[in-house]
Amino acid sequence: MLSLVAFLIMIGLLITIHELGHFLFARMFGVKVETFSIGFGPPLIRWRGKETEYQIAAIPLGGYVKMYGEDSMTEPVQGKVNKEAYNDPRSFHSKPRWQKMLIAFAGPLFNIILAIILFIVVYTTGITEPAYLTQPVKVGYVEKGSYAEKAGIQVGDQIIKVNGKEIKNWKEFTVEVGMKAGKTVNFEILRGSEKIIIPVSVPEDITKENIGISPIIKPIVGAVMKNSPAEKAGLKEKDIILAVNGKPINTWFEFVDYMLSLKENKPLNLLIKRDNQIITVNLTPEYNETVKRYTIGISPLFETKIIKYPFVEAINKAFEKTKELTVAIYKVVVGLFTGEVSFKTLGGPIAIAQFSGQALETGITTYLFTIAFISLQLGYLNLLPIPVLDGGLIFILLIESIIRRPLPEKAKEYLAYVGFALLGTLMIFVIFNDILKVLR
Length: 440
Known about the structure:
Enzyme class: hydrolase
Largest sheet: 4 strands, antiparallel
Membrane topology: Multi-pass membrane protein
EC number: 3.4.24.-
Domain PDZ: 137-169, 199-249
Shape: elongated
């Protein structure tokens, strides 16, 4: 339910801002706007303004601004309505091509501006992220039976390159690997003083299955579940686990491995450091039916840092983040055409809903950051030179400006059919991809 609410709020805001851009620029150039719609299909709510009908429609996967005379793309030869639209100074058709291009460009522009504004809000308010994201990619744990273990990656390895590209931290590593879903990539590993190349398969859905490596995480208790063996035994947050049944513990995953090795319900003796004091805690694990193993009811403490800046600096950071994500989006688009990025990485409405719900659960600033990122993607997506998208209309208008005459109406119709076919195929693919991910 939370995912649905988060999705509807997000998509409603993005569509409204996008269509508002078209609306305001159309009005600025004196074009009569007949309909302003949030959503497609039959209207759920409708009201009449001075000359524009506003509505919220049933299918919240888009919207439109219907301008008077926008269908009259060539000089009419018959039909009263077309002739009126052709001659009326308030029609879209009668406006100069540069004005039409700006009206088309305004929707994506407003999405990009919204992204920058939200980034400013996030960086001014402060956003929390795991501290390890900015640390070198040093492997603290290799999951048994994982892609990484099968490839030969070991604890202590440091990944310095992915497919020849230098990787400075876990954040860059996550992005690069995320774009290679379903493919095999070459990791350049620093093992001691030796550099080696290891090919590693990347799972098709990295949101459900990862390659099996994690950063070094200290064995510090982050949370204790209510009524768990850990709570009953007196374990507390920020307790440091030093040993279990006499076996020294240096990282959280060493403790995880020990717990995974348990085949029976036998007591554990934990050596704990608490407030500079060394104490022992005795407890007995319980079998967890959900995860099918013995647990004591604790989770690790992830070190985090708050990214927060003064207002002026937040503006600079917002533009830097926009530039960084713009480059990343460009690489993804190019990679899809060259085959470097798998189409299986694409997500549709279901994936966005899940993602937005998780972001809202994490916190309002994370949710706003997510909206900003998707708004940026929506803006650039609409600028692609595909018929029926804003970029497609701009592309046609540019061609007409070069040849100094309108394209034949039939040519525009065929281009529109091609555009609908491309977008329809893409939509079917991403929804099918979403369903497969959910089923997995």
